[in-house]
Amino acid sequence: MMQAPHIGTMNAGARGTIADVAGVTVGHCTLNQGPIQTGVTVIRPHPGDAYREKVPAGACVINGFGKSIGLVQVEELGVLETPLALTNTFGVGTVANAQIRAAIKANPQIGRDDPSVNPLVFECNDGYLNDMQALAIDEAHYLSALDACSEAFERGAVGAGRGMSCFGLKGGIGSASRVAHVGEQHYTMGALVLANFGRLPQLIVAGDALGRTLQAESTIQPEHGSIIMLIATDAPLDARQLRRVATRAAAGLARTGSVYGHGSGDIALAFTTAYRVPHDAALIAIPPLVSDTRLDPLFQAAADCVEQAILDALFSAETVAGRDGHRRISLNEALRTRT
């Protein structure tokens, strides 16, 4: 199996995934049952209770053709209150209910003496390979993915990425990391993507217009896909700065050939593990923040991480057959066929 080329000049972390940011873990629950090709992926920002110990976050909607839950409150308050969840479009409500139940189990006063909890679920449409009308995702799948969270996790056609397509090939979950130097300090940044977008002739791999050699398209097909880009860092940033980091995900996305088509839901979110926001605190102690004038290395790391993570999804995925005989071949299979 071929591996994705390294993007940019920055070094990757030890694992080359979002788990290089200390405390961040990822888990999957994969459904692979004939026409049911889907799942749930969960990203935990730290091992503790996300409701009691929130982390700063900022989001950017590049193109808003999406059905996510929880973004409005993140934009207003700038914190996460639950782990991040990824699934298919029709599974969003079910996974949000599972997040709410899990938060209430850990904090029985939620919605009573305590404020409500903000579930955060992102989606892409996997309906080409997966029978979304079967509504196969249930709350137990979220809990299974949550329990599976680990520093070591699979990428490719797993979890929420099981039924996803990317540039007309098999897409899914991809991840990457970079180490950014800001003055004398160095910070780790990691990305995880749910890649489900693009048309094959547009595919660019490390600057090479590879898609054109794999398919010559005579008619322009509309963009129907989406991508969710999640970025973690240990750099001390506030919510405003994190939104600026999230915005740079668009640069990495564009370098793979995306034009953010009309029917594409392209959403990025960045969070930091550098400090936490206690739920009950009257005053919040935060470390000195990186100056805005020193953010460029982190912007570069975000763009490179996202581009690398998209390529990781493509190179990690296997060929998958799903509903009604639909099939998506992997990039590796497409390259073998070409040669």
From TrEMBL:
Taxonomic classification: Bacteria, Pseudomonadati, Pseudomonadota, Betaproteobacteria, Burkholderiales
Protein family: Belongs to the peptidase S58 family.
Domain of life: Bacteria
Native organism: Caballeronia insecticola
Coiled coil: none
Xref: InterPro entries: ArgJ-like_dom_sf, Peptidase_S58_DmpA
Name used for this protein in its record: Peptidase S58 DmpA
GO molecular-function terms, A-Z: aminopeptidase activity
